[in-house]
Design goal:
heterodimer; A: 252 residues; mainly alpha; 0% strand; B: mainly alpha
């Protein structure tokens, strides 16, 4: 309710500025214009096409990153030499923004999907590796010893103790990875200039001063990000670690 | 760090460098696209000596500092006001929660349209993007100040100003510092990308993006190395130092 009031106040302010005539109407479109553009793009399916392309790129990159991150993270936690070899590399590469690689990837793999997916992969890998590695090391040693005393072998120990024990960290890692990936995909689509994708639409609209298309796409980007962040990863958390009683919600 | 552990950390880099060299010299890839490391090193040295790389770096850092300064001042102020006054919280929190999850880069074309290509647009975008974590953390920090500290200070007769300066601000500082750190990291990421989009004359992002046109992969990799080094320095030197001098020394968090 309070949220509604504050959003309404902002919308009214924006509308007043847009209608005041101080700024060019093409640059500051009124909200009904934006809504109409959004509706047209939704109705003729262009927005869906862009969103599907973007989602496909995000999840290819994220999937690869999750796979790599899980394998590498568990190996680093389990085997000392692996940790010694990869940890310095990970720490050195992590501070480089993923989008800085975009021009190199474009040069190596051409404009289009490969470069975009690789940028997303680069952005999403680090939170996955670091969180899996931290999670696997943070498993309560008492559990390991208890499982060992009850005769758990290597495989059982890994699947029944280490993986569930590390899962709160891993799920947080996945969530962080998605946030990073979502930023990276928008940027990479602007730079890698493929013909479809939400990032590309926004950037392309700049050429034609279509601020209404920009704002409409911005709303869709925000909405998709919100849906995945809250609903998908939130329910993943509820379905696994919360149900197993590994983390507590603040409100409960 | 001891000599032995330094040695151990150097091994993986040596292995990767050796693999890179083998790949570069094998002739499997065109050398323009996949330059040998000595070439990248030579380019790095050449661009540094010619003053080109330092100028790119200086312009980028200027934008980062300017944008981050806006984010720090506005973000901390808004965050603290939101934490202290119920009205402000009710009004601003929904807006911040809606704005924060949208990737900052998505705003980039809009900001460039509104504020023009070049410095103004990119600085404002960096400030805007970096402000969200600062606001959210400052707000949480003020909320997290123990009620009992505030009541104790009030009982001992602290007025509003002293309460703020001696209780709320130090109490919220660990959170504020975390927010500033996150904000700087986000601003830095966005800045590199926005320099590619905003067609500025100088800047590290532009250096690597512009080098693409001429297939100067060596200049790109040299630029990326500098970007990585700056990112690492900001994280390790600036903020860890700041944290050691304030909250760690006050015993609020463990070193």
């Amino acid at each position: 309710m309070k949220a509604l009031i504050s959003v309404t106040i902002t919308a009214v302010l924006y509308e007043a500025i847009a209608r005041s005539g101080w700024f060019a109407a093409a640059l500051v479109p009124t909200l009904p214009t934006v809504a109409r553009t959004l509706w047209t793009m939704l109705a003729d399916g262009t927005m869906a096409g862009h969103a599907i392309n973007t989602l496909w790129r995000v999840f290819s990159g994220l999937g690869l990153a999750a796979l790599t991150g899980l394998v590498l993270g568990f190996l680093m936690a389990r085997y000392r030499p692996v940790e010694r070899f990869f940890l310095p590399l990970v720490s050195a590469l992590m501070p480089i923004p993923s989008l800085a690689w975009a021009p190199v990837f474009i040069l190596w793999f051409g404009l289009g999907n490969t470069a975009t997916v690789l940028v997303v992969f680069y952005a999403a890998s680090f939170p996955m590796v670091i969180n899996t590695w931290t999670g696997a090391r943070a498993v309560n040693p008492l559990w390991l010893r208890a499982a060992g005393a009850m005769g758990a072998g290597g495989a059982a120990m890994f699947w029944k103790v280490v993986v569930p024990g590390a899962s709160p960290f891993i799920i947080t890692g996945l969530r962080l990875a998605f946030q990073r990936a979502w930023i990276a995909v928008v940027g990479a689509e602007m730079l890698a200039a493929s013909a479809f994708g939400l990032g590309w639409v926004i950037f392309d609209a700049k050429e034609f001063l279509n601020a209404d298309i920009m704002l409409a796409s911005l709303a869709v980007i925000g909405l998709i990000g919100f849906v995945f962040e809250r609903l998908v990863f939130g329910s993943l958390e509820r379905g696994t670690v919360l149900r197993w009683g590994m983390v507590r919600t603040a409100k409960a | 760090m001891s000599a032995a552990s330094l040695m151990r950390a150097a091994i993986p880099f040596a292995v990767v460098a050796a693999l890179w060299e083998i790949a570069a010299h094998s002739g499997a890839f065109p050398p323009r696209l996949f330059p040998a490391l000595e070439e990248v090193g030579a380019t790095l040295a050449r661009l540094t000596a010619a003053g080109i790389l330092p100028r790119h770096a200086a312009e980028t850092l200027f934008r980062l500092v300017a944008g981050f300064a806006i984010a720090a001042v506005v973000g901390v102020a808004v965050g603290i006001v939101m934490g202290r006054y119920r009205r402000a919280e009710d009004l601003l929190l929904p807006l911040v929660s809606i704005g924060a999850p949208i990737p900052g880069l998505a705003y980039a074309p809009l900001f460039l349209l509104w504020f023009g290509l070049g410095d103004t647009g990119s600085i404002i975008l960096v400030g805007f993007v970096a402000a969200f974590p600062v606001i959210l953390n400052s707000w949480t920090g003020v909320k997290a100040v123990k009620e009992i500290w505030i009541r104790a200070a009030q009982t001992m007769g602290a007025d509003e100003r002293r309460l703020f300066r001696h209780v709320i601000l130090p109490g919220a500082l660990p959170y504020i510092l975390t927010g500033l750190r996150l904000g700087l990291a986000q601003g830095w990421r966005i800045l590199v990308a926005v320099e590619m989009l905003a067609a500025v004359q100088w800047g590290l992002g532009w250096l690597i993006f512009g080098a693409r046109e001429f297939l100067n992969t060596d200049a790109m990799l040299a630029g990326i190395a500098v970007i990585g080094a700056i990112g690492l320095t900001l994280e390790k030197l600036v903020f860890q130092r700041l944290e050691e001098y304030t909250v760690v020394r006050w015993g609020m968090i463990a070193a």
